Amino acid sequence: IAETNPQAGSIRIIFQVIGKTTAALSQLKTSDSLLDITGPLGMPTEVKQYGTVMVVGGGGGIAAIYPIIKALKEAGNRVITILGARTAELVLLQEECRRYSDELIITTDDGSLGKKGLVTEAMEEVIARESVACSWAIGPSIMMKFCTLTAEKHQLPIYVSLNPIMIDGTGMCGGCRVTVDGTMKFACVDGPEFKGNEVNWDEFINRMKQYQEEEAVCFTDRLKEQV
Fold first, then answer.
1. Which residues 6+ apart lie within 8 Å of 95 measured at CB?
2. Which CATH architecture has domain 3-29+40-226?
3. CA distances, 42 to each of 74, 95, 125 (Å)
4. Which residues have CB under 8 Å from 46's CB, separation 6+?
5. Which residues are FAD-binding (predicted)?
6. DSSP state, 180?
7. Is the bond preceding 40 in cis, omega lying within 30 degrees of 0?
8. Any known ligand binding at 176?
9. Is 65 exposed, middle or buried (CB count within 10 Å of its CB: 0-12, 13-18, 19+)?
10. In a 3-state reduction of DSSP, which class is residue 138?
11. Is CB count within 10 Å lower at the N or C end of the chain?
12. What are phi and psi of 144, to 5 degrees?
């Protein structure tokens, strides 16, 4: 859910076609309907006035982080937004994010839009020139891991949004279990946001490979090139 309009009673959903259900969803037309939508679920983002904040969105994660950008700006923060994707056509919601950002930085792996490079490189540039109080990152698991490592290096707090396999969304099935600070948590009820430095990234990434293998390979290859 990327946006809500309480006055109109509407929500804006952005999704990626991966399997049978999302393929069916993509075929819906105006006047078609869904039987039920359940929510809100999980824990909300802690939005307050931090000062200067850095928000990083990658690929489809941009849709999830856009409401956070908007809320942080409306709470009075100076918002520096970094958006990244493999190529220009995958950089979502550019104008919407720009509207609620004091600065918008775009990176693409192939250089087709913004700077050629990784979001972590942009993070380093921002941290080098100004003081950042808090940060968020949402995107492919491998991206969030390296965003966390970058933030940790500079003792910058960072929150990530985990998206493991979810079935019922109420914590009963256990499919979305993740290890955070050495304890098993359910992303659907305890999350989806957690402190990045407390996430067991190796375990999480192994469970996510069936959905994010392509993004992981791409990001890892680019990191190798930098080394």
1. none
2. 3-Layer(aba) Sandwich (3.40)
3. 22, 28, 33
4. none
5. 14-16
6. E
7. yes
8. yes
9. buried
10. strand
11. C
12. -65, -35
15 is in an annotated binding site: yes
From the number of C-beta atoms within 10 Å of its C-beta (0-12, 13-18, 19+), residue 221 rates as: exposed
Residue 29: its H or E element? none
Q: How many residues does the chain have?
A: 227
155 is in an annotated binding site: no
| DSSP for residue 198 | G
Q: What is the sign of the dihedral through the CA atoms of 40, 43, 48 and 50?
A: negative
Count of beta carbons in the 10 Å neighbourhood of residue 144? 28
Q: Which structure tokens are listed for 8?
A: 């109109």
In this predicted structure, the answer to whether residue 189 has a pLDDT above a threshold of 60 is: yes
- Model confidence, pTM: 0.88
Query: Is 173 marked as binding a ligand?
Result: yes
Determine if residue 204 is labeled as part of a ligand binding site. no
Whole-angstrom CA distances from 55 to 43, 48, 133, 195 are 18, 14, 11, 14
pLDDT digits (tens, 9 = 90+) for 102-138: 999 999 999 999 999 999 999 999 999 999 999 999 9
Residue among 174, 181, 182, 183 at smallest CA distance from 207: 174
- Terminal Cα distance for the chain, rounded: 37
